[in-house]
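Case study B.
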Amino acid sequence: MAGGTVVVMRLLASAYAVAEKAGTIVRNVLHGGDLGIVEKTGVNDLQTLADRLVQKSICASLSKRFPKLTIIGEEDLPSETVEEDLIEISQYDAILQKPCPDEYSNLKEEELVVWVDPLDGTKEYTEAARLLDSPAVIEKLLESQRAPTRLLDHVTVLIGIAYEGKAIAGVINQPFYNYQMGADATLGRTLWGMLGLGAFGFQLQEVPEGKRIITTTRSHSNKLVTETVQAMDPHDVIRVGGAGNKIIQLVEGKASAYVFASPGCKKWDTCAPEAILHAVGGTLTDVHGNTYQYSADVKHMNSAGVLATLRNHQYYVSRVPQSVLQALSSN
Ligand code: AMP
Ligand code: MG
Ligand code: MG
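Model:
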């Protein structure tokens, strides 16, 4: 069935458009120079003005068009009127042109749950801003080849769509993609995918067979995480921020497994990335190899960690140490 008439395709097309707007907001807040950082309750858990504005923009835009949708966003924000200029009403036409997989063509708005991470990699976003000499001068940022600015690649905006507890579609915007290409480059990109349809907005690539490159957290590591990474017998370990960014590394052939053997990631971190990864034949589970559920009533924390791969998932599950499996119960 043509996507333009199907609820889930229209929702995905709206999610794409609002994720692009979100990318602009994330860039503008950095450009503005004042990130408005607030420390949340957890250790190493920050919120910026960009997290707040983007969540408002995504939630208000989607609920305006789809009032019966359940939307769960990471940030705990007071309910207040959202400024008109944060609302995005357009839809990405290329998604409306795609055929909807049969099994999803009759889904109703009220059956869908949307998980929103307005800014994934907030820690790296704030560090990048601090490391830049003058965050108010974006041109300087664009020209810079210095390592600290690579942190901006870690930042993404995540919108995942779930049906009957399963992540079925997702959108990832990477606001600073291309920043190292100079002032003339177009900044940012949007990746999207849907089960049964595939994933778009990037070139699917694989790490050469037999090479184990592990991508893991750079700012939320602990003993369980490092023990598990080492148990994978890696040829190389990459430590970067963001769940969205790490899934991009998997599908672009930069890493073979995303290993995070710890609580810390939440459903809004994994829903969109999981849908895109699964759309190209990959797998995201907890460290036991069990899948997560994304219904509206599930607990937000992914307590048994995250293990994601494009291929050979079972190998990585089989290498998780017994002590780690015992420490991270699957429930
Ligand atoms: P990371 O790989 O450390 O960037 O984590 C991926 C996502 O999970 C980010 O949104 C983090 O904020 C979140 N996360 C992971 N561990 C923790 C933690 N210990 N506390 C709060 N958030 C976490
Ligand atoms: Mg996140
Ligand atoms: Mg976030």
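The first strand starts at residue 38 and ends at 39. The remaining cases will be described in the next quarterly update.
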